[in-house]
Design goal:
This protein is of the alpha+beta class. It contains 25 helices and 13 strands.
Length: 661
């Protein structure tokens, strides 16, 4: 047994030394994976850009329903940035569909309403803290509970009715979970926005400030300002018991969702980006195991205390591997401490089998990060990832001289950054593409200059040179336009300097600037039908490129062209019928465009028009029923499904009569 402990101690010291060296110098090779840190940072940032993580989260930590002064906060990952998920850009949208199905089975918008007239305090706080009029103090009693949990003991002088939800153990009286009334639930619950989970009790005396007093300050996290905000906000005690509790009816758990919101808001973009990259790698490799976001949060927060936030900007991959190594060390030690309550082991209820599997998979991620990145990238439709990883690991060479290794690396991968930016711009993610180019420019500023730097060379100059290497004009124009909207410059005008006849010249109403610049090939169009045909073909082309932005703009403008034509008085009935039939095809395409990312837009904006068209063309009832099902309109789905069924049987019966002797 002593030999085993000695081996574990030596392993811990070895991994600790490796983690420390990862932060010291980005120009070195990771000793475990054998990959250069520059390479891994480049791969991670280019395959999983920050803006490709999406989802709803709460900017503020505490909310109030103004009419009735009900204070509440969100619980779990939805309370902060940790709920963001990598966007699925695959054609099948399988991951997005699975998320949708799982989201139905578990509610992510759980909230805890704070009982503001009750405050939880510790015994030593009662002497100096008298309750306000109309308020009640309950004592935090952690004597017979697991770390992270407690019982709430009432003062012995208080009187209770039989209806009060309390538990009496000997001479002590403990508070049980408060009953949620129908009126309170009616005030709080809003579908898809918030769901009342429990009534919590605020605690403003939790000793979080002791973390900063235990040792010397190692980094700028948590800052004194952040610690003060967390102490001022406090935590919430929610009715939840430990799985091995001896008295589950009267046990409460310390919840720090509000503090976690404050922490994530204090992080830099690079820190949040690093957390989300780790989260997507771990979640996909540990999908069937009992690993939760809260486990990663605690390890991540502790690791951030070991390194300055500025290191995330210059050594992104080193920081990620540091956190991953810290997680692996916790799992191997069978002790993963809660960041706010270090005595609370978050995996104390995990079986040895589960912990062993977690260790095995996390160690695999740590040893083979490039393989795991490739697996996850292909799963989410980032198909260019395999070639990018192969090129970076196989073709990029290094100088032995550390003073020139950064310059050598960026010279070799510079064209690859522009190629990746092209891919994102081609799919309509112009902001993501611009971010990659901006990061490439900022990294180039860190390269030691052997000659006098050209002081006038700015990101604008770098962007223009990068745009000139992009063949697709839409990418060039819309990237320039995105930059102009941010900086107030005129790069787009320079790109369109030799522009010929544009689409806007043929339309009597103003259209979206992202579409108006397109060169229209036909100069002899006498009506809008030629424009309509051009826009439909353009939308189909962008649809297959997976550019929903341009596909949506083009098809909705084409629909508007047909509607404007139908409003003319001199159209014959035959002509109107032909245009309406064409409109059916366009609406089906709108449906396809909407399903590109499982959004209701633009389909929802045209549902009324489709239903009106269905009265004239009953044969499209089945398509309309599918659209109603997609937009979650069950009654209309049944209506048009029945209409389609009657139409099919009606045609069958007519054919039967015609064929009868």
């Amino acid at each position: 047994m002593s030999n085993l402990l000695l081996f574990q101690l030596l392993s811990y010291l070895m991994f600790a030394d490796i983690r420390r060296k990862l932060l010291e110098d980005q120009s070195q090779i990771d000793p475990l994976s054998g990959i250069h840190l520059y390479q891994l940072s480049f791969i991670m940032k280019h395959i999983f850009p920050y803006k490709m993580f999406q989802g709803g989260y709460m900017t503020y930590h505490l909310f109030v329903i103004g009419t009735c002064k009900i204070y509440y906060h969100y619980l779990g990952s939805f309370a902060d940035h940790s709920c963001l998920m990598l966007r699925d850009i695959s054609r099948t949208q399988k991951i997005r569909y699975l998320r949708f199905k799982r989201g139905k089975s578990r509610n992510k918008t759980r909230v805890a309403v704070l009982k503001m007239d009750v405050v939880a305090v510790y015994d030593n706080d009662l002497v100096n803290d008298e309750p306000m009029p109309g308020h009640v103090h309950v004592l935090v009693d952690s004597s017979n509970t697991h770390p992270g949990y407690c019982r709430l003991r009432h003062l012995s002088s208080m009187q209770f009715d039989n209806d009060d939800n309390v538990l009496k153990i000997g001479s002590e009286i403990y508070q049980k979970a408060y009953r949620i009334t129908d009126r309170l639930r009616l005030e709080v619950d809003i579908e898809n926005l918030r769901k009342l989970h429990c009534i919590g009790i605020p605690c403003y005396t939790f000793p979080f400030g002791r973390r900063s007093e235990e040792g010397k300050e190692k980094s700028d996290f948590p800052s004194r300002k952040l610690i003060a905000s967390i102490i001022r906000t406090g935590c919430t005690l929610i009715p939840k018991h430990h799985p091995r509790s001896s008295c589950p009816d009267a046990e409460w758990q310390f919840n720090f969702s509000m503090a976690e919101n404050l922490i994530f808001n204090s992080f830099t973009v690079a820190q949040r980006h690093g957390f989300l990259v780790l989260k997507v790698l771990l979640e996909n490799m540990l999908d069937h195991f009992s690993f939760k976001t809260k486990h990663l949060k605690s390890v991540f927060f502790v690791a951030c205390e070991e390194m300055p936030s500025s290191v995330w900007e210059t050594n992104f991959c080193g920081c990620l591997l540091f956190v991953l190594g810290s997680l692996l060390s916790c799992l191997k030690a069978r002790f993963l401490p809660n960041y706010f309550i270090p005595e609370n082991n978050l995996i104390d209820c995990h079986s040895e089998y589960d912990v062993y599997n977690l260790c095995t998979i996390v160690e695999y991620i740590r040893l083979f990060p490039a393989n795991v990145i490739q697996i996850v990238a292909e799963k989410y439709g980032y198909t260019y990832g395999s070639n990018l990883i192969k090129y970076v690991l196989s073709n990029v060479k290094y100088n032995i001289d550390k003073t020139t290794v950064l310059a050598s690396f960026h010279d070799q991968v510079g064209p690859l950054t522009i190629s990746t930016a092209k891919i994102w711009a081609k799919m309509g993610f112009y902001s993501t593409s611009l971010d990659l180019l901006e990061d490439r420019f900022e990294q180039s500023l860190l390269i030691p200059q052997t000659e006098m730097r050209q002081t006038s060379y700015s990101f604008r100059d770098f962007l223009v040179s990068a745009l000139m290497e992009m063949k697709q004009k839409a990418s060039r124009v819309l990237l320039a336009r995105t930059f102009d909207m941010i900086m107030g410059s005129n790069v787009e005008d320079m790109i369109l300097e030799k522009q010929g006849i544009s689409l806007q010249m043929y339309l009597p109403w103003p259209i979206d600037p992202r579409l108006s610049w397109i060169k229209f090939p036909s100069a002899d169009s006498s009506d809008l039908t030629t424009v309509t045909r051009f826009l439909y073909e353009y939308s189909k082309r962008e649809y297959w490129r997976q550019n929903k932005v341009l596909a949506e703009l083009a098809i909705t403008t084409a629909i508007q062209c047909i509607q404007e034509t139908l409003n003319k008085d001199n159209l014959s009935d035959v002509r109107k019928k032909m245009l309406k039939k064409k409109l059916i095809v366009f609406y089906v395409h709108v449906f396809c465009v909407s399903t590109m990312n499982w959004k209701l837009r633009p389909l929802i904006y045209h549902m009324e028009d489709k239903e009106n068209l269905c009265t004239e063309f009953p044969e499209m009832a089945l398509v309309v029923s599918s659209m109603c099902r997609y937009t979650n309109q069950p009654e209309k789905t049944r209506k048009y499904t029945e209409m389609s069924r009657l139409g099919v049987f009606g045609r069958d019966s007519d054919l039967a009569l015609e064929s009868s002797p």
